[in-house]
Design brief:
alpha/beta; 7-stranded mixed beta sheet; 40% helix
Length: 452
């Protein structure tokens, strides 16, 4: 039989995280304060521990993974790499399709890769509580899980539309001991302000971030943790791509194209950045970030300095953005409904070193169902964006006869997203193209800052 699962021994869990900054042709654009001047690491000290701040600003290529973090990784890492033989046969494509299955983690997604690290560094400095936001609930459940492991209380502000759509994600967080509030909430000044303006606000990741940051900044025993966007979060996720490269070596193969869904950027950065190291060294490989057409941050957003949250609590970051006051439609890929993107991903895309594409909701669910019916695993709606793009490329190979090697990151399973699949099967889901006039309008809401 041809090999389906490519496995690594636990001893091969990466010993270091890979920092893409070391291989970027230009240094990252600095974060700015409200006055438009670059800020230093000290500006982050109110809500982050020193270990994470050092990683956030580091340009070192390799950063050692603490042994205690690697020991917890052993619960699910290394994750398997699969050859999708049955999907290939169903498509009739000459392409070879591989996927990394991050849904084997206890929380069912890639998010614990950074949750463990963030909890570890906060525990080191005596932090007792962590406040965070979550979209679809994958990040919130991951932080709840590791918070319990490290004896840290966790409070989660969950985007209201997802809070209502995904009750069992809330149940997971509660099981692991976290408090969960629908955002915008009455718990914070930021939430109360939003509700006063729009009592029926469906919420957004930007709003939930505002609430979590406000709480962290107001209490000495509390720090902020986040599941995507910032440099240190993407750094921690690079265990995915590093393992995948070892697994490709085992079968003597290497991807022509790497696909990963992209909301804030941690999924894409984790899978693609280690391959970018090869690209920077001269190897041919295409790295494709896949986002929803209803939240087209990279493909249609403005490359500009903007806040990471809705209210303006965070530093200004140079990124592709739809405007910090963007409130997305209630699509069922809640983890991809962010107004901005990782500054690192944004800069690499702006410089033409990675690619991006947007796909529609119905097409992603169609791809998710086809994948489930061939490979057996029901994917999260977020992951189905990468599956859609990969299937489309495989069908192109069918037309051209090219035998490309395609790789995507299956960032999580969809076991807690079945209500979304039910709506797809009953015809209740629709495609939504974010209006051009709304994107143009966002340009006028961006902060008026300039480098001093």
């Amino acid at each position: 039989m041809s090999q389906t699962k490519i496995l690594l021994d636990e001893s091969e869990i990466p010993t270091h995280w890979y920092n893409v900054v070391a291989d970027m042709p230009n240094p990252p654009a600095p974060p700015l304060g409200p006055d438009g001047n670059p800020i230093g690491p000290d500006a982050l000290a109110a809500i982050f521990p020193p270990g994470l701040i050092e990683q956030e600003v580091s340009a070192e290529r390799w950063i050692e993974i603490p042994e205690e973090v690697r020991e917890i990784y052993q619960l699910w890492r290394p994750s398997p790499l699969y050859r999708a033989h049955r999907l290939e046969a169903a498509l009739g494509t000459p392409a070879k399709i591989y996927y990394k299955h991050e849904g084997v983690s206890p929380a069912g997604s890639h998010k614990p890769n950074t949750a463990v690290a963030q909890a570890y560094y906060n525990k080191q400095v005596g932090i007792k509580r962590l406040a965070t936001e979550t979209g679809a609930g994958q990040w919130g459940s991951s932080l709840a899980l590791v918070g319990k492991m490290f004896g840290i209380e966790v409070r989660v502000y969950m985007v209201k539309v997802s809070y209502e759509q995904k009750p069992f994600r809330r149940s997971m967080m509660h099981t692991w001991g976290a408090e969960v509030f629908a955002s915008p909430s009455e718990q914070t000044e930021s939430g109360r302000k939003i509700l006063a303006e729009d009592p029926d606000s469906p919420g957004s990741l930007g709003i939930a971030i505002s609430e979590a940051v406000e709480e962290a900044a107001s209490r000495k025993d509390t720090n902020y943790a986040l599941g995507s966007v910032l440099n240190h979060v993407l750094l921690h996720q690079t265990v995915i791509g590093q393992e995948a490269k070892k697994q490709f070596e085992i079968v003597g193969d290497y991807p022509d194209m790497v696909f990963a869904s992209c909301g804030g950027g941690s999924n894409f950065g984790g899978a693609a950045f280690p391959f970018f190291a090869d690209k920077a060294a001269g190897k041919e490989v295409r790295l494709v970030a896949v986002e929803p057409a209803s939240c087209p941050t990279l493909t249609r957003g403005h490359y500009a300095y903007d806040f990471g949250d809705a209210v303006g609590h965070t530093p200004l970051m140079k990124m592709y953005t739809l405007g910090h006051d963007f409130v997305p439609p209630g699509i069922h890929a809640g983890g991809l409904r962010y107004h901005g993107d990782s500054a690192l991903v944004s800069q690499l895309y702006n410089e033409g070193l990675i690619e991006a594409m947007a796909v529609h909701q119905l097409g992603t669910f169609e791809a998710g169902v086809q994948f489930a019916q061939t490979e057996g695993i029901i994917p999260a709606p977020e992951s189905s964006h990468a599956i859609r793009a990969c299937i489309d490329e495989a069908l192109k190979c069918k037309e051209t006869g090219e035998a490309k090697t395609l790789f995507f990151n299956l960032s999580g399973h969809g076991h807690f997203d079945m209500a979304s699949y039910d709506k797809y099967f009953s015809g209740e889901l629709v495609d939504y193209e974010y209006p051009a006039e709304a994107i143009d309008k966002a340009l006028h809401h961006l902060p008026k800052v300039a480098m001093a």
